[in-house]
Structure formats: structure tokens, C-alpha cells
Design brief:
This protein is mostly helical. It contains 15 helices and two strands. The longest helix is centred in the N-terminal third of the chain and has 46 residues.
């Protein structure tokens, strides 16, 4: 009897080891495939637009910038377009996409629901409201001189503050006695988003022509204002948090069992919650301040990654960041090519992709609930 139990335990351990090894290999393949796809999109993005440049020519310019190949290419008009106009736009889009997607994965882990998304539950709208208030009220009343000198410093701060307040309000409304109600979270998110949208509309009503153009930029989302200066402000905010968020992966995995169970496993639940809220607010605030309100990236990408490699946050968080960068770079290519020589706001493209996906997700969850 004892021998049979030992043989059964050994077989179970072997099966678990094989399963873990299979998941590890699957994760490595997924990372390599997603990184390769993202790099291909980046190469195409540098050549796409009204002034088209062949991918081979783009590669030659990049090599020349690194000191390899025909250095005289750097004096050409093509090099000027690639290095000074499209490169900062590409990097800003990749950073914003990564920040939004990893924020979505973080919120879904925190609320233990795949429908949580910074745009859907009003966090992005709250950050957009604070950015709009910075543009209209700050410029109109008491920050005019200071805002003119440091516009890129004030807007991320204002958007971060708005995202932080929205995330905290959402969490406090949806959580009772340590338990988070998903239905309350979604309804509260809709209400907070509607309130922030109405206040943004009021700001648009009292704004002048220049401020109204800026507000339209925030509401539709665009990478058209990308520059090396803006990138130098956004990158020091977004890059550290992209490396910090995966450190919460083990805690988020434990939270999937429930807050009480995670606490008994030794996980500092309250500290993880506070850090997650702070990082989401920081990421969404920096993204909204630099590119406006871009929806659905935070729900589409983490859900696709979760369907592919499972719910383990050790892989889900970094892969969501890479997938978000790929999605926004791809959406920016579409936005620049579909109405050449003009360009669509990128928020329209992501909404066109994300809204049908969200409907499919709701229908799929409804069918699962009926089973």
C-alpha cells in the first residue's frame, strides 16, 4: 500500500514537472514570436506614411546611424524623416501601448476580472479630465506663465493626479470588507467615466479655439505631437514602471486564490494593492498626458495573451507590455495610411478594433455563465 502511494506521488510530481517545462517552453516561444513581430512592425512604421520609405532603405539609415554602412545617408531627406519625425513617434507609441496594456493586466489581476481596463472603468477618462483642467484652467487663471515654460512637466503631473484619484475612488466604491464587487466596479467605472466626460465637455465649452484643439487631441488620442522633447519626459516615467510591475507577479498570482488565502500564504496584500493602484495611475497618467485617451488597449492585449499562455502573471505582465507596444505601433501604421496624406486619430483605430472584441468577450462570458 505504502509503495503504491509513493509510486502515485512520484508519477504526479513527474507529470507536474513535464507540465511546468511545457509551459516554460511555450512562454519562451511566445516571447520570441511577439518580440520579432513587434520589431517587424517598428521597421514598417518608420517607412509608412505619406512620404513612403522602403523597409530596406530604413534599415540602411538605422545602420548608418550606428556607424555601419553608408554614413552619407544621414544627410538625406529620408534620414531626416526617419530619425527626427518617425523615430520619436514610434518610440512614444511603443511606450504608451506597453504602459496601457500592462496597466490593464495589472488591474485585471488586482480586481480578479478580465473585464477591468483603465479606459473602461474610467481611469483614463479621469486622467484626461485632469489634463484638460490643466490646459484650460491652469492656462486661464493662475499657471499661465509657468505652464508656458513647463507644459510637458505639468500635463503628466495633472494626468497622473487624475488617474490616481479615479483609481482610488473606483477601488473604495467597489470594495467592502476586503472584497471587491466586479459588478459594482464596472457600474462605478461607467458612472465615473460619464462624470469625467461631462466635466471635460464643460471645460471644452469655456475653452478658446487653441484650447479646444488641444482638448480634441486628448479626447481622440494621437501620436501626432510626438517629439524627442516629449519622449524625454515620458520615457523616465514609463520605463521604470515597466520593469517594476512584473515584480508584483507572484503577489497577483496569490491574489487569484482570494485575498484571505493570499494573506495566509504570507503575501502583503494591502501593500500590493497600494503599489498596483499607484503604478496604474502613473502609467495611465503619463500615457494620457502624452497621447490622449486611447481606449481598449488595456483589455484586448492582456486577454489575448491570457488565452495564449494562461493566467500566470510572471509571463502575462511582460508579454502584455510587448503586445501593447505592437498593437499601438500597428494601429499607428493604419492611422497614417488609411486616409493619406491626412491621418486618423489613433484612438479611433483602437476603438474600431477593441469594441467588437469587447462585445465578443461579453458574449463569450455569457455563454460560459449559462453552462
Amino acid at each position: 500500500m505504502t509503495l503504491a502511494v509513493k509510486q502515485t506521488s512520484s508519477a504526479s510530481a513527474t507529470a507536474l514537472a513535464i507540465l511546468a517545462e511545457g509551459r516554460r517552453r511555450k512562454g519562451i516561444i511566445a516571447v520570441a514570436a511577439l518580440v520579432g513581430f513587434c520589431l517587424l512592425l517598428m521597421l514598417l512604421s518608420l517607412g509608412a506614411g505619406a512620404f513612403a520609405i522602403a523597409p530596406g532603405r530604413v534599415a540602411d539609415i538605422l545602420m548608418a546611424k550606428l556607424g555601419i554602412g553608408q554614413v552619407e545617408l544621414l544627410d538625406s531627406r529620408e534620414a531626416l524623416v526617419v530619425l527626427n519625425i518617425r523615430m520619436p513617434r514610434l518610440l512614444l507609441g511603443a511606450l504608451v501601448g506597453a504602459a496601457l496594456a500592462i496597466s490593464g493586466a495589472l488591474m485585471q489581476g488586482l480586481f480578479r476580472n478580465p473585464l477591468a481596463d483603465p479606459g473602461l472603468v474610467g481611469v483614463s477618462t479621469g486622467a484626461g479630465l485632469a489634463a484638460a483642467a490643466t490646459i484650460v484652467l491652469g492656462d486661464r487663471f493662475f499657471l499661465s506663465n509657468f505652464a508656458m515654460k513647463l507644459p510637458f512637466a505639468l500635463l503628466p503631473f495633472g494626468a497622473f493626479f487624475g488617474g490616481l484619484v479615479s483609481t482610488l475612488a473606483l477601488y473604495l466604491i467597489a470594495t467592502r470588507q476586503g472584497r471587491t464587487s466586479v459588478a459594482t466596479m464596472l457600474l462605478a467605472g461607467v458612472a465615473l467615466g460619464a462624470l469625467a466626460g461631462s466635466l471635460t465637455g464643460l471645460l471644452a465649452f469655456i475653452s478658446d479655439d487653441r484650447q479646444l484643439r488641444d482638448l480634441t487631441f486628448w479626447s481622440l488620442g494621437s501620436l501626432g505631437g510626438a517629439s524627442w522633447t516629449k519622449l524625454s519626459v515620458v520615457a523616465p516615467i514609463v520605463l521604470p514602471l515597466l520593469f517594476a510591475v512584473p515584480l508584483l507577479a507572484r503577489g497577483l498570482n496569490a491574489l487569484m486564490l482570494g485575498e484571505a488565502e493570499a494573506y495566509h500564504l504570507g503575501v502583503p496584500v494591502q501593500r500590493i494593492k497600494a503599489l498596483a493602484i499607484l503604478l496604474v495611475a502613473l502609467a495611465v497618467g503619463a500615457s494620457v498626458a502624452s497621447a490622449g485617451v486611447i481606449g481598449f488597449v488595456g483589455i484586448v492585449v492582456p486577454h489575448l495573451i491570457r488565452l495564449s499562455i494562461g493566467p500566470d502573471h510572471r509571463l502575462l505582465l511582460p508579454l502584455s507590455a510587448i503586445g501593447g507596444a505592437a498593437l499601438l505601433v500597428g494601429a499607428d501604421i493604419v492611422a497614417r495610411l488609411v486616409v493619406v496624406p491626412a491621418e486618423l486619430p489613433i484612438g479611433i483605430v483602437t476603438a474600431f478594433i477593441g469594441a467588437p472584441f469587447f462585445l465578443w468577450l461579453l458574449l463569450r462570458r455569457g455563454r460560459i455563465a449559462e453552462l
